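Internal QA ticket QA-208
Title: Verify multi-chain structure generation after dependency bump
Assignee: T.L.

Test input:
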Amino acid sequence: MTRVLRVKDLEVCFATTEGTVQVLDGVSFDIRKGEVLGVVGESGCGKSVTALSTLGLLGSKGKITNGEITLYQDDGEVELSKLDPSGPMIRKIRGKEISMIFQEPMTSFSPVYTIGNQIMEVIRHHQGLSKKAAREAAVEMLGKVRIPHPEQRIDAYPHQLSGGMRQRAMIAMALSCRPRILIADEPTTALDVTIQAQILRLMRQLKDEMDTSIMLITHNLGVIGEMADRVVVMYMGRIVESLPVKRLFEESLHPYTQALLTSLPVLGSKKRNERKRLASIKGMVPDISRVPPGCPFHPRCDRFMDGLCNVHKPRPVQISPDHEVSCLLYSEVAKDAG
Amino acid sequence: MLNYIVKRTLLMIPTLIFISILSFFLIQLPPGDYLTNYIANKEASGGSVNLAEVEALRQRYGLDRPFHTQYVRWITGVLKGDFGYSFEWNRPVNELIWERLGLTVSVSTLTLLFTWIVAFPIGVYSATHQYSIGDYVFTTVGFMGLAIPNFMLALILMWLGHRYFGLSVGGLFSPEYAEAPWSLAKLLDLAKHALIPMIVIGTSGTASLIRTLRANLLDEIQKPYVTTAKSKGLKDTWILFKYPVRVALIPFISTVGWTLPQLISGETIVAVVLNLPTTGPLLLRSLQSQDMYLAGSFILMLSVLTLVGTFISDILLAWVDPRIRYS
Amino acid sequence: MSAETPLRTSTAEIQADNLDVASQWRLMWLKFKRHRLAVISAVVLVIVYSVGLFAEFLAPNDPHENNRRVVHAPPQRIRFIGEDGFSLRPFVYGYKSEVDPYTLRRSYVPDPDQVNYLKFFVKGHPYKFLGLWETDIHLFGVEDGTFFPLGTDRLGRCVFSRIVYGTRVSTSIGLIGVFLSLLLGIIIGGFSGYYGGIVDTLVQRLIEFLRSVPTIPLWMALSAALPRNWTPIQVYMGITVILSFIGWTGLARVVRSKFLALREEDFVMAANLLGASRLRIIFRHMVPSFMSHIIASVTLSIPSMILGETSLSFLGLGLRAPVISWGVLLQEAQNVRTIALTPWLLAPGFMVIITILAFNFVGDGLRDAADPYVR
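Actual output:
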């Protein structure tokens, strides 16, 4: 499959009142055409920052200090990380080539305009359609996301819609220019569980229909299991493991990934002796400004090797063509020492 | 929307009744009445009083009747357009208040516009350039504006005008226009004279508006919908004005409601210092001399003006904020 | 969208660790301390109120004493350098009166022949220190001649001493007025917010009504109604009550909204379940939890009280001579002519500005410090 986006060695720093803090450290991954890439991790691990840096939306405090983000279009490549974040080039990408939906469907729409106004705006901006044509396109999109009576709902204000409907409208807006990539940042976290499943199914259908790739950011491994083709696991601004979802539950290698998996409740195990106490990862995520030396996970890892993990920064190790892990257990350094 | 307006209008009626009672109660508060005062003053200065005439006035206005009788008599008159009689000026109140009220409304409205025009760009600038030098300068000036009593600002500006520009500041008209009928030239003359009062009355309002707008806009700029708008590929200035500024404008518009009483208040006292032919000086005198119908009518009409202002601002608010309109 | 911006850094974290055990008041103080302007302003307020408290001791002259020979005299500059060169002891020149040959206006100029040295703890007019014992010692002044650091008014009274005395009245009226407003505000707003329903609706209508009446005309009408034959103390109390007549509405709103929010909180529910009485819940559990907000709002509402007194007295409807307040003093500066000739009569106005600025800064600092979510 062809690549649509490549992120390579991405480093991002934020300026705070007490100095700069590095929040992404050497993040690399690809997104292929038509696939769903899941990005998992606890809050604060850099998932959202990765997404925002793709669109140049880090704000005045954040800065890409190293690495490349490349978008592959039909007629060539664009180096997104080199574009002026407030310039016209990146604005042509946003909403047209790459668009984004957010966690809070309530606050992601402006409360004072109708959703139609906000959807038509992006259509007219990128496609230069007339008001009438844009309205028709918006109605069509609202129909595609299964909003009933789209020709009436287009004139509704966000507060007049339910949470699920708002998120559908958000998806309609994001997909209205048929982007190559849709970045979904915790798209279902704020919704009821029953609605979550509907929205996820809708996203899958529309992805196939429009041949869009999705970068799905979530802390919910269940969502990943349902939606994603491949998964990237992040911890404290680094990618610790990446592998196909099919293999995630059986073949993951990194202690952090395994710990995440054991903290998932397993449904359907009826026999009493099969029920286990849910595992939790010991300790707390340290402050990002005080990243532990060596492997950042070592203070919480139950396979911690003294003298190695707290000294050497693990490098990604290729396990199989689609599976990489950054852990000293599997690297040359460990083998040498062992 | 129509429903809302009707509901809001009906709500005003009890308030109006209360205001009329309060106004009348206030002017009844001082012991005695204008006539006892008048007699005391005459006798103190050795003049003679025509007791029969005094008695006739007292009879005519029922000054010896209980409060509610007097109130009903007054308010039925007001509803018919008769605001009573000014003892001090020996003229019906009607002849005295309208022109002055008109000028008060003009000066207050002009000031409100002035306040908005000045506060809007400064507020937006301060919020978008937070902690820049300009922001600090405006914040400091704003704090000063809130702290200087406006009569003192009037005095200082008058003094500066007198000292450095040789201007005689004060009044709303040049002598040659004061009694002239309304014309374009008189209007221009008014505009020229209204500048200083506008600055004086508007300063504290402008300062608080800037602070409100800045704080609101800073809040709004961080809202997720701004990020959404950015992710759509729109231009930054377009986004700023279409999205956060639009929401931050809601409290801005609602300020008509609370700045209008403030402006009318400020206007009253500044008018005394700057000697403006508006309600202030006349209200002050009528209160001091217990010229009850005149004072009462002024207080009533000023309160009504404020109510109307609040009403307009509520309607505007419902118009700009769909969340109110549809709730 | 949750941008995962790590704003917490190591030092803040270490502080935060210590803060875990700090009480609410200590937390407020720690945050307030970081607001430098607010701290400076707090010091200014302490000074202003001390001036009010020790007015007799600090004023070099009797504020009621007329000096017919030096009417409308300009301020006497405190000098270190005279005709004999530098002197470590500060001194002032006495006045020499001159008559302008054209306008025939009398004016006063410094007279280098009269050198009066300033001294600490000089004897002056007698007074009772803090109302406790009789003394005639003043912090500073001159032994011979005159010392008018801010000039004199139309009766030749010392403007500086009058401002010092006026501080007591003007600043205390703010405090007492705010205290009355607060009392009304907490009681009315608290019950309105706690009981809700019809009580709440009625109180809200009342507050809206009072706020829709323009303040100054209302104040004017009310104070015009104060009987002319009242003693200064009665007038003082009357004006204070009038000022709090409007002031309580703002505080009642703050209290009410806090009550509405707190009523839903778990700890209030818990107290309810434990069978605590309503009054106990209000005063033991609810009031302490928003006390810090109340203090901030109170600080921010004192300026309007001071401005109100000043404005009313300036119009001649508030306090009246012989009472001395900043507003009464500013009455002397009613028109441009007076200000052009004797600009020093505006000096009380600067005290008003400084005090109000200080209250605003302190109030802002307190408000930020009281908010547990602002870092």
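Spot checks passed. The mean pLDDT of chain B is 82.
Status: verified.
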